[in-house]
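ARCHIVE ENTRY
Sequence with per-residue tokens
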Amino acid sequence: MTTDVLPLLPTDSDHALLLGRIWDPRFGGPRVATVHGDTVYDLTSVTGTVSELLERPDHVEVVRRAVAGEPSWRTRDVLEASLAQDLTRPHLLAPVDLQVVKACGVTFVDSMIERVIEERVGGDPARAAEVRALIAEAVGSSISAVRPGTPEALRAKSVLREQGLWSQYLEVGIGPDPEVFTKAPVLSSVGLGAGVGIPHASKWNNPEPELVLIVDSRGGVVGATLGNDVNLRDIEGRSALLLGKAKDNNASSALGPFIRLFDGEFTLDTLRDEEILLHVSGPDGFHMEGRNSLSRISRPFEELVRATIGDHHQYPDGFALYTGTLFAPTTDRDEPGQGFTHKTGDLVQVHSAHLGTLVNTVAAAEDLPRWTFGLGELLRYLAGGAATRA
């Protein structure tokens, strides 16, 4: 795998606190690590998991102090091994471990309309263009200014019902409550360079470039990373009750390359206007670019976090929260009117200036390496003295 379109590290990486996980075959398990320039430092002697570290009130200082020690790996070597999918060398994993992987959907008006289309056509891409034109004529552009849950949103709901265009996606798009679902089991996400999985059954699917917030058990947002919330449009389009089948498959959650910690200079406010770019390169010579402009999100980040954690639901090890995407591809890849769908071998790059670039290749979920390192394996590894291995 090669990537020469977008840089892997943040543009201001010299000032960034980057936290990740590295699988080093010498240890037979994951190592908590931080990147500083061209060197990577092992934090496993201080903390066994990323989750444990982020629960500490001094986690920023712990990471800063680590660079005074001896480095364990070279950044370039780890990145190269990750992109090459060389499992015999130290390589990156998804940067979260015990955190539950949650997701918010339909948080942008543009993607909301595409979800309505999926539902209307029952997952048939050939009918999508016709329904897209119908909705555009009925709704117009005024709905993009509607704030979810407001009186204006209620009036919009009434008009859409009268025109026979109401849908469950519009309910979560402009209604009082956002959609929140569990994207992936703990420890099942993949990181930089890994394959992302599309099941053989899906014939209409796409990447979803997203900002992913990293939240501790108290509901505090402590950092962020990039994510690809792989989406099966035909499966979910058949029925919203198939959301689990459409969203949670082998290697369907990609995160990384690192968590960037909030440190006073880099904050949640920094990300409110972040541009997340997408670049897809296919083995057939196809190229597609996209953009997820976070300034256009319809609900504040804080509202999405409150909808996920509170008196109604707790996460003792924290959680990672996909925040949704503006991007919904309508570009035809093969036949006119058929829209975009992935092909095996597609190179997918998700990039932002402050978070770097997440790179993955598309493969059939059934053909990718099986997920075998779960909670039991992690507990055995940590109980076996992972912190003292060197």
The two ends are 30 Å apart (CA to CA). The chain has a mean pLDDT of 90. The CA atoms of residues 224 and 353 lie 13 Å apart. The chain is about 25% helix and 25% strand.
